[in-house]
Write a structure and sequence with these properties.
Blueprint lengths: L4 H11 L1 H8 L13 H36 L3 E3 L9 E5 L2 H4 L2 H13 L4 E5 L5 H14 L7 E5 L5 H13 L3 E5 L7 E12 L2 E13 L9 E5 L2 E6 L6 E7 L5 E8 L10 E6 L4 E6 L7 H7 L4 E6 L14 E4 L7 H10 L5 E4 L11 H4 L2 E5 L5 E4 L11 E2 L1 E5 L5 E6 L4 E7 L2 E4 L14 H15 L6 E2 L4 E2 L5 E4 L5 E4 L2 E2 L6 E7 L2 E8 L16 E2 L8 H8 E3 L1 H25 L1
Parallel strand pairs: 2-3, 2-4, 4-5, 5-31, 13-14, 13-15, 15-16, 16-23, 24-30
Antiparallel strand pairs: 1-32, 6-7, 7-10, 8-9, 8-11, 11-12, 17-20, 18-19, 18-21, 21-22, 22-23, 25-28, 26-27, 26-29, 29-30
Helix pairs in contact: 1-3, 2-3, 3-13
Length: 586
Amino acid sequence: MTFLQPLLLVLSVLIGVPIIIHLLGERKYQAISFSSLKFLREIERDSLQKLHLRQLLVLLARALWIALLVLAIAQPFFSSAGGSLEPGIILIDKSFSTSIDVNYTNKEKDLIENLPRWDNITYDEKSNSDSLREQILTNIENNKRENPNIILLSDFQENRQNRQIIDFIKTLTTRAYGLPLVKEKENFALSNIRVMNENSDSRDMKNIEVQLSKNVKAITQPSIHIKINGKQAGRTSLNEKGYGDFHFSTPENDYIPCIATCSDDEYPEDNVRYLVIRNRQKTKILCINEEKEANYHLKALRAMEQVDITEIRPEKLLSINLDQYDMLWFSNLYPISLNAMKAISIFARDNPILIVAGQKTDQPSGWESVVGNLTPVKDESGFYRVKDIYRTEGSADFHIKRFYRTSLKPEKILWELASNDPLLMEADKNIYLLLSPFHFDWNEMGLSPYFTRVIGDLIIRLCENEELLYETGDIISIKEPFSKVLTPTGEQYQIKDIFSHTNTPGFYAVESAGRRKIIAVNIPADESVQDQIKTEDIKILEWNGRDIADIEKQIKGRNTQTFFYILALLFFILEMLLLRKGERTK
């Protein structure tokens, strides 16, 4: 503001210029006597009074528009109710999308340096909402702030954390201000990526399916570049809806690292997607079932060349090393021990488990947390039609004779009855519940090609659809004690049971007992391109990132610079009108 002081001083002096001109410009009149001018003197007296009044009005208008112009340049404001610059709290969004934006981090630094008496509280996409609320309340109580100023510095992405923060601070104070620093350039994100086998009969080809989203400023339609094993494998173009796919031959590696990026993105760090593809020669399934049970799915599994099954009785579960299998298949709800249930839950962190609601009506204890409370539904007079069987469009649907209803709310429904009841659903991450003991129609059981194909496609979907499982900040469970973990930045850790240093996206290598496993970690889905959050709930501040006085004035009150410019223009026009009228009078 110091560079404006000389200018304001000069403009202030200009206010006196009209008065000086008016005083120096007074005309001197000489009296000359004429005969019979009585009535002319009366006319002259009235005209001079009007002339003096007009001159005073011109003087006033000229002085006012100059004064108003000076005030407008000084950027005045009206103090709003409660508006003050008392120190408060700066809430700083430190999520992945903001931390990689240099423009954001520079403005964050400038804001903190210019408001040194304010307290700073940071949060990110992994912050616990309850802990964050407690931290804010403790700060208010310790500093004895009844109605504090709160500035929320964020990119205002529409995610759960930002919405909860805004809703919470509005309950604390009416002095809540938002300082949005959003991405202004083109920004894309691979919002969905997964790997599928080219078909259920071949292991030589795989297909990467991608979906792209973009912000409103993005006008180009980029391509997706694919790297396999660190080498550029090719690219795929996208349709107008942002979908595309890429086909490639499977290398010999057990774990195939894959990187997908999109071109023409001016924020490339938040669109890279890392994916690890398991190159299974055969899917190893451990089937848990009682002897002499009529399980028609076992006949189908035995007939599949791409599946290697091992059958055990339920009591043998703890004696088996589950790490050597890709999937567990329970043919019924068998009574199992607490230790066996713990082993199942550990296995489900990375591998699928399919549980069939068995033929027995009684549900053993211990399964409630996994499958909920089951209620059998019987209809001996007919069959229930099954719709939406995966990848079997055009084929006749199954008909089942009996199924169960569960008290659990499904995470995802894979198979659904025509009555809209779930038949096969994801009860929890990697835990799938089939709510029928395979009581299918007789001509669809056993070695029916249709039944076998449906089961085969289901196994591919559960085991070989490699999705983005881990995000930055997630905890990765280590199955082999004292494993060595190598991070994307080259750091090494010796880990006993869990690994939590996952703040960098990329590939993490886990080495144990002579084996090497690759794990992909990605940025959270909320940190990719998405809609900006609506900010009607709090007052939005405008800041150029340089002069902190811009924020101070907006917090103190409403800027009235435009108002004074308009008034100055109006008084200037009034002066011109008065001068023109005076010319006509002469």
